[in-house]
Amino acid sequence: MADDRxxxxxxxxxxxxxxxIRTITFNRPEAKxxxxxxxxxxxxxxxxxxxxxxxxxxxxxxxxxxxxxxxVDFHGxxxxxxxxxxxxxxxxxxxxxxLQWTSSPMGAIGTWRSPVLLIHGDDDKNVDFSQSVLxxxxxxxxxxxxxxxxxxxxxHGFLRYADWLASYRAADDFLRETLLHKQIDEKSGRTGTGVxxxxxxGTKPGS
Length: 207
What we know:
2 domains; 3-stranded mixed β-sheet
């Protein structure tokens, strides 16, 4: 079977190993280095391979100009801290909690600089809606530009086709404005009007 990634993913995500260091470069500037499915598959393989390789001590992820990489956050878990089983020692429990925290986006939010788009259904049974509320609050506190799109009575996987379309269109507008036109208000740390709540027909309440 032919490799469905082909040479394109190899060109868009080149990898160089030297002196125990693996350097992975996002090389898709025409798309603001956004990852395609093929790039994502290759990226995961490169990281997994590096983890197993005894001669790789570190991995550097970089990118060609103009931006590191573009992306949109669809209902992700931002704070992964969960109760730890009591069958661990106190030190092991503390280590487990620390691992949960450092594995969460919230654990690295202090290094964030790029604008963020949050999209979430407020009836999500998989990821509590408070996760997005928490992240929005922390982004605002750090003056990191963001937008949020909330769908009333919507679940984790989006049951309504219209909501999927609205999400993709919002993502397209967000990337176009923040990457091409740079309409983010850096001074206020916000974009637009904040939370955008839509009716099932795609209109705003009261419209």
